[in-house]
Design goal:
The chain is mainly β and about 140 residues long. The chain contains 1 helix and 11 strands, in the order E-E-E-H-E-E-E-E-E-E-E-E. The longest helix is centred in the N-terminal third of the chain and has 7 residues.
Length: about 140
Amino acid sequence: MPAIEGRCLCGSISYTSTDEPILVGICHCTDCRRQSGTAFSINVGVPAGGLTITGTPKVYETMGTDRGEPARRHFCGDCGSPIISVLADADDIAFVKGGTLDDPSWIEPELELWEESRLPWVDRIESEERGYFSRGLNTD
């Protein structure tokens, strides 16, 4: 797989990761919906140590309902594009926002989180290869 590269809408923030993704997931939680501005968020988990960010994103913390730990949501302070989220209790993984990838054509979600928050008009695509979780993943 080539390097994972992306940027915000205005180009002030860009990133590169040469590591293979750990996972690709869809999150239906309220915070991800609010941050993405749509029905769910597609997140690509990459090792945080291999992620290089150019520019200085702003950070907003939200509190995880299940985990009781903050999620640090990094975004562009100029155009508002969400870039990555980092969970305080799993800070070795950076969750890159799929919509910011330069080439998102390879994305295939492996799991869906917070299905109990799925909006009723969002169809569930049944797949034997996809994990479905009513709430979030346990990071312990």
